Automatic annotation (TrEMBL):
It comes from Enterococcus ureilyticus. Residues 65-89 have a biased composition (Polar residues). This is PspC family transcriptional regulator. Its main location: membrane. The lineage of its organism: Bacteria, Bacillati, Bacillota, Bacilli, Lactobacillales. Residues 3-60 form the Phage shock protein PspC N-terminal domain. It is found in: Cell membrane. The chain crosses the membrane at residues 12-27, 33-58. Residues 65-106 are annotated as: Disordered. It is a single-pass membrane protein. One of its GO terms (cellular component) is plasma membrane.
Length: 106
């Protein structure tokens, strides 16, 4: 079974398009990026349009079978400040009752 041409989910600079092409060809992504820059100097303007077209046409390489939206998304994890209330480590502070008829602030 041949590998499908998709954007790279791991090696991304702008959209992962050039890295996806490199993974599909089985070469280092840096080589494809250097070839793209050289082509940009030789064919002025064309590679930019080609990159935009490829970025739109090549499908994403992320696993679509697994729903990676919201809190299950690996890019949406707050690892520096974990939720202290998640596993009962800390009790939430109870809200104080407020009398709605109190207009002393005005």
């Amino acid at each position: 079974m041949r590998k499908r041409l998709t954007k790279s989910p791991n090696n991304v600079v702008f959209t992962g398009t050039l890295a996806g092409i490199a993974e599909w060809l089985g070469i280092d992504p840096t080589i494809v990026r250097v070839m793209y820059v050289v082509a940009s100097f030789i064919f002025i303007g064309s590679p930019i349009v080609l990159y935009i077209v490829l970025a739109v046409l090549i499908p994403s390489g992320r696993n679509r079978g697994n729903n990676n939206y919201g809190h299950q998304n690996p890019y949406n994890r707050n690892t520096h400040n974990p939720n202290p209330y998640a596993n009962g480590q800390k009790q939430r502070k109870q809200a104080e009752k407020v009398n709605d008829d109190d207009w002393s602030d005005f």
